[in-house]
Amino acid sequence: HSSPMNWRDSFICFLAPDPPNPDEIPEACRDAIMNYWKHVMDFGTFLFQLLSEALGLDSEILKNMDCLKGLFMACHYYPPCPQP
């Protein structure tokens, strides 16, 4: 009986408060991650504006409370098992 093999590749980065440096992202997924970051940040900003207004607050209150900070991304690639 042998122990399981670790045969996945992982990429982990913080997306907020500052975007990742594109040069530090693998070229194979660089464009996708930067595009994802932009859309998630735009959506988050819009969503927090709506939530703030629904609570009867200034539309920028959640953004000003740093609710858009701390976005983290973890991606895993699982190639076919080399020894099924």
Automatic annotation (TrEMBL):
The keyword Oxidoreductase applies. Transmembrane segments: none annotated. SUPFAM superfamilies: Clavaminate synthase-like. InterPro entries: IPNS-like_sf. One of its GO terms (molecular function) is metal ion binding. Keywords: Iron, Metal-binding, Oxidoreductase. PANTHER family: 1-AMINOCYCLOPROPANE-1-CARBOXYLATE OXIDASE HOMOLOG 10-RELATED (PTHR10209:SF473), OXIDOREDUCTASE, 2OG-FE II OXYGENASE FAMILY PROTEIN (PTHR10209). This is 1-aminocyclopropane-1-carboxylate oxidase-like protein 10. It comes from Noccaea caerulescens. The lineage of its organism: Eukaryota, Viridiplantae, Streptophyta, Embryophyta, Tracheophyta.
